[in-house]
Amino acid sequence: MKNAVSPVASDPAEQARTGQQIRKTIVLVAETRTGSNYLCELMHSTGKLGNPAEYFSPHVAFGEATTQSARCDVAQSRGTTPNGVAAVKVFAYHWKWLHKEIRFADAFPNRHWIWLRRRDFLAQAVSRAIALQTQAWRSDTISTSLPRYSSKDILRTLRYISNAEARWRMFFARNGLSPHMLWYEDLISAPEPAVMQIAAHAGVDIRPSDISTDVQVRMQRTTLNEEWKAKFVSEMGSIDHLDKLVAEKPYPRSLRNFRRLWAGKLRAPI
Question: Is it the case that residue 82 has pLDDT exceeding 70?
Fold first, then answer.
């Protein structure tokens, strides 16, 4: 993915609030093709739910902020609205860079977790496969190439999203967290109620009139997405096969392990 410029406004007064005290943080957890850019703009429109963006993504540029520490400063300043509510959007792979330089818990206090997902898992994978080819990750960007159907690309994106979702499920379970679940399909059909749910979960007082749906981002799905879905199922569908997300690690080959396996004393690798 090529570097993109953050769509979040860069008002000088807003940037000057680097030292502003953050009262609470809205952490929007998502993966690609869940409508997260649309949701971020809706939240930003309220002026009270922070200014969420991919502050920790290596693919999104934020001026001179190249290190994760510098990006953290940007997230704390640009991501915070005057009422002291900060908001950030994070994908699972962002943690690969993020945790090396900052302690998320220290930088963003009083966290309220929102998990944006998509019910139609295959539609999400198809959308991501198309975006990877065209590099049009937002409706307001121009495609760099025409997409070509590839069952391998869709299968690869299915595995990627499945792994990311599994990581978040483990993260929430390990930390005893219960994120508020939002679904892409509900967000698209009823954006205002979705934003109101976020406000209620975070304890922020807003009214429906505070939400503007007149934003730049629009849905990118076309008939091509449905065509690819149908073709993929016809080619790759098989109830006789169960996919592996993580490669199995067999026991080391040895005479001892062979004897144990033969005797039924060696458990199958998981």
Answer: yes
